[in-house]
Structures are given as structure tokens and as C-alpha cells.
Design brief:
Layout lengths: L17 H6 L7 H4 L19 H12 L4 E5 L8 E7 L2 E9 L2 E6 L14 E4 L2 E3 L6 E3 L4 E3 L11 H4 L3 E7 L2 E5 L7 H5 L2 H5 L7 E11 L3 H6 L7 H4 L9 E4 L4 E6 L24 H6 L14 H17 L8 H5 L1 E6 L3 E4 L6 E8 L2 E14 L13 E3 L14 H10 L1 H10 L12 H19 L1
Parallel strand pairs: 11-18
Antiparallel strand pairs: 1-10, 2-3, 2-5, 3-4, 4-9, 6-7, 7-8, 9-10, 11-17, 12-13, 13-14, 14-15, 15-16, 16-17
Helix pairs in contact: 3-14
Bound molecules: FE2/S2 (inorganic) cluster and fe (ii) ion (FE2).
The site of FE2/S2 (inorganic) cluster (FES) has 9 residues, from loops.
Length: 460
């Protein structure tokens, strides 16, 4: 039903806004967190076939995945010269290698003789060069052709023509990105506001504490979209938080939500059916009890956010050997989630410090790989420890089996529990996918950018 009081996209949940909450925090938020950037991008349905059609999936591979920057691994996967990391995306495979102390390069993972894949499974390895298991051609660590057995038969082969095929490769905040497009624009163009915003939250000073991989029974876009909005919190998580989350769109490639922790706005729940949402508001003491900090009685007028943020500064600070005294309440507490097109999420907060990645697997339109990297701030001057091996969960395993995920394990089970039903429903529906104008605006921005890639390819 059209709302006569608002232009499309202008309506918001009742109650406190994130901007007002951040403005009243005891330790104020830095400029990136007070920035607001939303604009209405349309309200037409998305065709369901975008999630189910093999032809559309193939178009994504040939026109988007082969032309955009994507996070392949972390620098800590390649600490020594000779370390390499194999990154697979759909049918494509790339080797990222540290060829010198301060130089990382990437190559197509394919022999320049007759095409054989050079390195097997995705993941980290080490060697002083590369060789092909078929006829034994070999290359130096920097990709230059080294040896061709039976050289007499290949007078037409030389270093210039048959070195490993280079792939564009750049680093940002400890994440190594590759781009399969030989004419790729610089990574910074795709990063939009991220370098500016994350100057406040340097992710290269965090280490991977836990890396979890799971195959999900859904198209990669549907899976990541389950993490782009908090609108599902009421039903999927049976939680009243997130009604007043803030959604920002900073450019074609970057969007964000900020979802308050340790704040409760009962007015924001007035639109949600059911008596339970109309229960008396939680007290500040009850809100503090929801945080993983040593509990203490709050003094008169003290808020759970202020007390909780300070307890986190003290307790996480002494546990990790990190000085959090300059970190705002919002950074310490909130779920702050940036999305970088096409498939990466970065959380700069301290309580919720992580990165996600969603990728198609091979050429299957109906499944994807979801990865969670729990990141942990490093003590000043500390070296990155070796990254942990990924923990791989099978499709029917529960995230709660991973003890280090703590309370998040059950949340991930809830988040991913709908996906198979959604993928099945998308195949049988007669209509498209409908999006909320505000809470699901990041999903719309994502699809518009995807369309940009697909249409650019159509013109060529
Ligand atoms: S295919 Fe690699 S050496 Fe022949
Ligand atoms: Fe969720």
C-alpha cells in the first residue's frame, strides 16, 4: 500500500535512529560511521531466474567474475618467498605467489604448453617455481619460462610467448585481490570509499583466528543476500534487534549496514505483529547482560552501551594486548558490515570482527561456498601468526559444532537454514523477487551493479 506521507524510500522504522544513538554515545563514532548515504534505487521485482537459470549463471562467469576484482587470499597466507595460494572461482583458477619479499604476483593456473592445471586443490603451498605434471615444462617463481624438455622441437617457444599468463593482483589491508581482466582498472576504483573508511579500522593489523567454509544449497547471490539485511531478524532469529538498522550505499560497489548492539528501541517494533514485540523494554542492566563482558551493576543513568564498550575495551584489551582507548563505543559494540561487490563483507567492529566471502562452486547455479574469517586485532608490532587451516563443514553439519563460533554458531544455522527452501521456491515461483525500499536496498544496488557488468559485455 502506498504511503501518502513518504516518497518511496523515505520511510523508516519508528524509534531511535542509528545516527542519534551514535551521536549520544559516551565515546563518539569516527566520521565514517556517522556518514549516511541512502538513495532510492527503484522498486521493481528482480526476475527469479537470476538465481536459478544456468544461462544467466554462465553470463555472470564470462562477463562479471572474469572482469572484477575479487579477494583471493590474505597476505598472511604468503609470508615467505616461494609461498603460493591457489584461488578458484567457477571454472577459473589463479595462482597467487610471493615472488620476492615485497612482491606478490598472480598467474593463470594453467600450463602454457597444452593447458594442464599446474597446481591442484585450492589453498596454500610452497615451491621455488612451477612445473607441469604432463610433459614437465617448468617456470621460475616469477612466472618466466624455465625449461622445456625436448627443446629442439619447440623453436617457436620462448620466454616472451610461453611464460605463465599474468593476472592483475593488488593488496588492500592484508587482503590480496585478483582480476582476470587483462585490461583491469586499478583496484582502488572498485573499492569506492573503503580505503577512506578503513583508514580508521586497519584490517591488516588483524589476524585470522578462525576460517570456516561450508557449501550452501543456494545460488551464491541468494546466500549472500541473507546477510545484507536485518529485516529477517524477527522471523529467522526470533530477535527484536535490527528494526532500526541503518543502510548505506556509498557507490556501485560498496554498501553498509550498521546494526546497534546493546540498544533497544521498542517503538521500532510497533509495526511487527505479535504481543512479544510489545513486551516492556529491556532495562539497561538486561542489555548489558547480553554482552560477553564481566557483569557489574550499572550506576544511576549509566547506559549498557557506555559500560559495555568500556568493559570490552578493558577486557579485550588486556586479553589481546591491544590499546582500544581510542575506539568509539560503536566500533567496540556494533555489527558494522561493509559489502564489496561482488562477494565480500568486511566487519570493522571489535566485538564482531570478521570477513565473509560467497562464491559459486564450479558451474553449479544451485550451490555456493560460504566462508567466515574471524579476525582478531594484533598487538602493536606483533607479527602475523600462520593462518589456521580452514574448517570445512559438510552441508548437513551444524555451525554449532565449531566451539570457537560460540553464540554465532546457532545464528549461522538460522541464517543458512532458509536457503534450500528459498532456492527451491525461486524455481517454482511465477513472480519475481520483491525488495523493501530501505532495508533491502543493498540487494538492489548489488543487482544494478551486476547488470552494469553484464551490459558492458553485451556492448563489446
Ligand atoms: S601440458 Fe604442460 S607440459 Fe605439456
Ligand atoms: Fe541473520
Amino acid at each position: 500500500m502506498a504511503d501518502p506521507d513518504h516518497k518511496p524510500g523515505d520511510a523508516r522504522a519508528h524509534g531511535e535512529t542509528i545516527a542519534r544513538i551514535l551521536a549520544s554515545d559516551a565515546q563518539p563514532a569516527p566520521a565514517p560511521l556517522t556518514a549516511e548515504a541512502y538513495r532510492f534505487l527503484g522498486d521493481t521485482d528482480l526476475p527469479a531466474s537470476r538465481y536459478t537459470c544456468q544461462a544467466f549463471f554462465q553470463q555472470e562467469l564470462s562477463s562479471m567474475w572474469s572482469r572484477c576484482w575479487q579477494w583471493a587470499c590474505r597476505e598472511e597466507h604468503l609470508p615467505e618467498v616461494g609461498d603460493h595460494y591457489v584461488y578458484d572461482i567457477g571454472p577459473y583458477s589463479v595462482i597467487v605467489a610471493r615472488i620476492a619479499r615485497d612482491e606478490i604476483k598472480a598467474f593463470i593456473n594453467s600450463c602454457t604448453h597444452r593447458g594442464t592445471r599446474l597446481l591442484g586443490e585450492e589453498g596454500a603451498g610452497h615451491g621455488q617455481g612451477f612445473s607441469c605434471p604432463f610433459h614437465g615444462w617448468s617456470w621460475h617463481l616469477d612466472g618466466a619460462l624455465k625449461e622445456v624438455p625436448g627443446r629442439w622441437d619447440f623453436p617457436h617457444v620462448c620466454e616472451a610467448s610461453h611464460s605463465l599468463q599474468p593476472v592483475a593482483c593488488e593488496s588492500w589491508q592484508g587482503f590480496i585481490f585478483i582480476n582476470l581482466d587483462p585490461d583491469a582498472s586499478p583496484l582502488r576504483e572498485q573499492l569506492d570509499v573503503l580505503p577512506n573508511h578503513f583508514a580508521h579500522f586497519p584490517l591488516d593489523q588483524r589476524r585470522i583466528r578462525l576460517h570456516v567454509q561450508k557449501v550452501l544449497p543456494a545460488n551464491w547471490k541468494a546466500a549472500q543476500e541473507a546477510f545484507m539485511e536485518a529485516y529477517h531478524n524477527f522471523t529467522t532469529h526470533d530477535s527484536p534487534t535490527g528494526a532500526n538498522a541503518q543502510y548505506d550505499i556509498f557507490g556501485p560497489h560498496v554498501s553498509r549496514f550498521i546494526h546497534n548492539i546493546a540498544h533497544y528501541s521498542p517503538e521500532s517494533l510497533s509495526d511487527y505483529p505479535g504481543e512479544k514485540w510489545r513486551a516492556p523494554p529491556l532495562t539497561e542492566q538486561e542489555l548489558l547482560a547480553g554482552l560477553p563482558v564481566t557483569q557489574r551493576p550499572l550506576t544511576e543513568g549509566e547506559t549498557a552501551r557506555a559500560a559495555g564498550a568500556q568493559l570490552l575495551r578493558d577486557e579485550m584489551g588486556s586479553q589481546l594486548g591491544v590499546d582500544f582507548s581510542a575506539a568509539s563505543d560503536s566500533e567496540m559494540l556494533d555489527s558494522i558490515e561493509y559489502h564489496l561487490f561482488p562477494n565480500a563483507f568486511f566487519f570493522p567492529g571489535m566485538l564482531i570482527s570478521m570477513a565473509y566471502r560467497f562464491r559459486p562452486l564450479g558451474d553449479d547455479v544451485d550451490s555456493c561456498l560460504f566462508e567466515i574469517l574471524m579476525l582478531e586485532p594484533l598487538a602493536e608490532g606483533a607479527k602475523h601468526p600462520d593462518p589456521p587451516e580452514p574448517v570445512l563443514l559438510s552441508a548437513d553439519q551444524s555451525y554449532t559444532e565449531i566451539k570457537e563460533l560460540a553464540w554465532l554458531g546457532a545464528v549461522y544455522d538460522q541464517d543458512t537454514g532458509n536457503l534450500q527452501l528459498q532456492q527451491q521456491g525461486l524455481k517454482t515461483t511465477r513472480k519475481g523477487v520483491t525488495l523493501g525500499n530501505y532495508q533491502e536496498a543493498r540487494i538492489r544496488r548489488f543487482h544494478l551493479t551486476l547488470d552494469d557488468y553484464l551490459s558492458r559485455a553485451d556492448c563489446e
